[in-house]
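Revision sheet: structure tokens.
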Amino acid sequence: MLLGTVLVLLLLGSAGPASAHAALRATDPEDGTVLKSAPRHLTLTFTESVGLLEDSFRVLDPDNHRLRLGSAEHAPEGSDTARVTLPAKLAEGTYVVAWRVVSADSHPVSGAFTFSVGKPSVTTATVDTGPVENPATAGLYNIARYLAYLAVALLIGTAVFMTACRPPDPAPLHRLLKAGWWTLLAATVALLVLRAPYESGTAPAFDPAAFTRTLTTRPGLVLLARLALLLPAAFFVVRLLRREPLSRARLAAGTALGVGLALTWSAGEHASAGIQVPVAMTSSALHVLAMAVWLGGLTALLTTLYKSSSAVPPAVVRRFSRLAFRSVTVLVVTGVYQSWRGLGSWNALTDTTYGRLLVAKLIAVVLLLVMADMSRRWTARLAQVEAAVPERVPEPVGGPPLPPSEPATAPATSTPTHAGLRRSVLAEVAVGVVVMVLTTVLTGTLPGRAAAEAAETASTTGVPTASVTTIPFAVGSARGKVQITLDPGRTGDNSVEAVVLTPDGGLATVPELRLSLTLPAQDIGPIDAELTDKGGYWGTSSLNLPLAGDWMMKVTVRVSEIDQVSESKTVRIAG
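Predicted:
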């Protein structure tokens, strides 16, 4: 039923717009354009709102020197734009723009594009936008995220288990409550400190100025809200530890705290961006709560089964079984919706990392349901054992005394049944941890919908944006090399700039330069680029390469009326 529902929703929702992770939709100036006059601003438009950094724009001039820019800001069109003011006068040539912003779902994205003023440069400036994430910072940040998920499950799940299932000996659960609260506090503080270097892609370090700026961003505010909610949650935990009775008002307050904590995840992850944001945030919060009640409650039940000083009454297990069933129902409904929202198409299940991770999670969830069914069977056996034990009736006066070691109302203990239940719950917890890890990885993975849109705009977000090939030649006494730039170096229309360089790197002029490309694997070509002399370089803006693959680039250089030479080199054309 679960698989069928997923497939139906995928079919019905495959035509929806892109969701989560910002993809670059347009640039002004456009990538690769040649402008008659210098622009005053650079403006980027994304598929969703983005956060700006102090170093959101880097612009290199034709000599590879970085320009001094103003502060990045949102354009008047809205928060899905990023704009920066350029210097008043720009020299003629090609400029490279590297950008870096933070998606509405808190993940940094970056890329680069080019534009030219007057005419393209003889050589194209290149820039490394840097990795989207520093490996050390990303590793620490992801560890903190994993711990936060585990901690919130432990905290909420144990608290719900203690109040709803009412184990007779809650003492073994006190450590779980404390561990959940302290771990969530430490993980949240770590996320807050690591947020600035995570966004900028730098090594782990504490910069007071960057930390202060983080506190004004949405991810920072979400983490601050989580810290604020942990303070009243501490009082709720203390009351549970003291075994104080909880009134309806206190139970309502505890429920509100749990919902608030869950919302700090939905407000800072994929649910906060893309389509149907209110519905998505509600679904995400319910998903986190159901996950915490089920998996955290499983951990509490396992601890009770192993650590309780007395036999666990079957009523406790039955209460949790009913609670777990409701949690699974919520998980299935919200999980189906979030899967449709994140994928958007059939192909995304196998063609994207998000889809493959989702399939792995679905398999793990199915296995978890099998383990849960086994636990329910053991619970039923435990209840049957309890029902089969007759209630002890006190003997009449003068009869033999009751054994002092066995109270008259103590239930009989079935060791094989309890052992089977413990093993089944232990297996549930183990698979549940795998599900939580996959869930955490999914929250940091580009969803299928966004991956599709990012692929459509790859020519403006790829780094580098051009393919540069150098082919040496020698004919008679002439020596040199031809530098050929294909922009963007992908299938479809490409512009070509070819210059002839002397052995010492200077420019050389030749009476004729021809270029053709052949794709031997598909028996396509040769395709003549039809270069024309542009005054200092040879070029065209209308070379169409229909297929991706390894193309054979052949260049013919004529240096005099009778001397010419042809040389070839393989160049990779992306899809």
